[in-house]
Amino acid sequence: xxxxxxxxxxxxxxxxxxxxxxxxxxxxxxxxxxxxxxxxxxxxxxxxxxxxxxxxxxxxxxxxxxxxxxxxxxxxxxxxxxxxxxxxxxxxxxxxxxxxxxxxxxxxxxxxxxxxxxxxxxxxxxxxxxxxxxxxxxxxxxxxxxxxxxxxxxxxxxxxxxxxxxxxxxxxxxxxxxxxxxxxxxxxxxxxxxxxxxxxxxxxxxxxx
Length: 209
What we know:
Helix content is 29%, strand content 34%. The chain has helices spanning 23-29, 31-36, 66-70, 73-81, 123-132, 134-139, 166-175, 177-183, and strands at residues 9-16, 39-47, 53-60, 90-100, 112-119, 142-150, 156-163, 195-204. Strands 1-3-2-8-5-7-6-4 form an eight-stranded antiparallel barrel. A hairpin with a 5-residue loop joins strand 6 and strand 7 (156-163). Helix 7 (166-175) packs across helix 8. The longest helix is centred in the middle third of the chain and has 10 residues, at 123-132.
């Protein structure tokens, strides 16, 4: 992902809404409230496989305890405004690994993103494995890889991949050994299914407002 994630807490949620195109606008309208809980960037992706599914990634300066942030009225009011019936699970974690596999400006917003949340047996083994397979990922069209470890359980991780196009994204999911290992556990139990989507909107929250 981008450089402003390095020292931030990331809150990611994946859910279905009737009008995904409204999510970015509603978040922008709530920028002052999001600023109050330390948010500085919000990325919204629309699924390419489910027309009502979105992924929202919020980068937060963790000035408040995690539980206080997640219980903030900001999130409940936002979910209510966009028409979410059931409050989705929120992944809260920090960046533990990032690989830049292609030359691109540091602020480049991913066009096609694959996201998955899954448990792992050993975080260091995972980090070593993604480094060892960087050439394979690069050949498969992966431009950038970020791995986040959950704050409440370091062995629960979220992987975000920026891929050059959707065809390569689907190919990576279907043919990569690393993807195959993750896919056996992603989408099981409380974990959402693998998300494949395109960038929809970016909200930069200006602290000078």
